[in-house]
C-alpha cells in the first residue's frame, strides 16, 4: 500500500517537495507520523514510527527430509530391529522402546544422500584468482585516471593487458 501524507507546519504555507512524506508500508503494520515544529528552521521535520513484529517462519517438524532415501531407511530399520522380542516385563518394553528410538535417527543418517552442492570457487580456482587480479588492476587504473585525467591512464582502463 502506498500512502502519501502531507504535513505542513502551517495551513497558509504552500507545500513544496520537502513537505510531502511518501511511505511504502504494508497495510497490516501500524504506522504513526508526527511532525516536529522547529521555529528555527524553514522546513517541518517529520518522524515516522512503524510498529513491526517480525514473524519467523518456522518449518514444521518432520521425520524425513528430501535428502533421505526412504526405501534404504526402511531396509536399514528392518535389518536392525528384532521383531521377535518378548514383551513379558516392563524392562523388556523399555529396552525395546529405547532400542527403537536409537535406531531411527542412526538409520536416517545412514540413508541420507550427500548434498551435491557445487562450489564454483573450488571448480575454477585459477581462473577466479586471475579475474580478481584483473578487476583489482582495472579499479586501480580507474582511480588513477579519475585523479590525473590523462589519456594514457584511460588506455589502461580500456585495455590493461597491452601496457
TrEMBL record:
Source organism, top-level taxon: Eukaryota
High-level lineage: Eukaryota, Metazoa, Ecdysozoa, Arthropoda, Hexapoda
Name under which the protein is recorded: Endo/exonuclease/phosphatase domain-containing protein
Biological source species: Aphis craccivora
GO MF annotation list: exonuclease activity
Keyword entries, A-Z: Exonuclease, Hydrolase, Nuclease
Keyword Hydrolase: yes
